[in-house]
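Human: We require from you a standard protein entry with sequence in single-letter code and fold as tokens, and nothing else.

Assistant:
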Amino acid sequence: MKEEIIEKYKKAGKIAKEALELAVELTKENVKAIEVAEKVENKIIELGGKPAWPLNISINSIAAHWTPKINDETVFKEGDLVKLDVGVHVDGFIADIAKTVEIGTNNWEKLIRASEEALEEALKIAKPGTTISEIGAVVENKIKEHGFVPIANLSGHGVDEYENHTSPTIPNFDNKSNQKLKEGDVIAIEPFATDGVGKVIDAKNSEIYKLEVPKPTRQRMARKILEQIAKEHLTLPFCKRWLQKSVKGFGLEMGFRELKRIEAIHNFSVLKEESDGMVSQAEHTIIILDEPIIITK
């Protein structure tokens, strides 16, 4: 891997770490989720990066893909277990980091520690030649050691230039795969632990979208949205909040409806633990080299 690319990953990682620290600091009882999202996303830009996706703020049994909608009234409450998942890119090179925060109580300290310790153990063995099943086994064993289960159908993943989910998939259990990490891989390891059954299901459509195919459309608002997505977000996820300054009110909704109708954009689903179990998450991004670099530490 070229040194200039490594430096871009490292810069993205440094910004992501600072953005996550801000998110943790802001996530308190009676604070609106949208205030946290907008301040963190703006901070990323101030620091010289760009959000690689909208800040994911997933509460309690929601595991992933929740971000506030325009004028969202969601407020953090005492006892909430909040997963904060930050993505930053510098010229397309992505850093992915996540942490779980419990608001005002200590009921889920062990669950938080389960995912954090699983991540730390996995990072210790992430190097060229390690099989992905070895990482999965370490994650699974550590989470079970704490009395919880990993979420089997959520996983870590590779990242690449303007691609937030690529090969290899990094399982949270021993999947018996012989696929090995190789030098130059950039992977996000993200253990999810739960007191539930260990599976997520689609709950509802989220506010997070991704460009699928820039299909032609006669609707003016849809064309305007499509042009902005292609210019500013390329293949990375985005949300309506980011487009409301250039496309106002009902025109924004009309444009999105048209783009979904012609399947130009993909609407992610909010992912929820199947049995309503509480969920914790921890995540770092690492460049696989003879001396691996954890870019988000």
